[in-house]
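Data deposition worksheet. Section B asks for the primary sequence of the deposited chain exactly as it was used as input, without tags or linkers unless they were present during the calculation. Section C holds the resulting structure in token form. Section D is free text for depositor observations; keep each observation to a single sentence. Incomplete worksheets are returned to the depositor.
Section A, Depositor: J.P.
Section B:
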Amino acid sequence: MDAAPWAELAFPPHRTRLPMVGGLPPGVERDDPPPPHPLHPLQASSRAFRCTLARMPAVREP
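Section C:
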């Protein structure tokens, strides 16, 4: 492999992908819609909880 592509992959330029502080400048609009909000909050599966407990040796002891 040529050294230039390898160096680009191994040592990418220092670019941050974090949003800038303070929001977008005036007059700049977002071109992507915000992500949709979930209809229901995240809830743990009761079946997964029971299966996890069943695998624990301490739970099986009297």
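Section D:
The chain is about 35% helix and 0% strand.
The mean pLDDT is 78.
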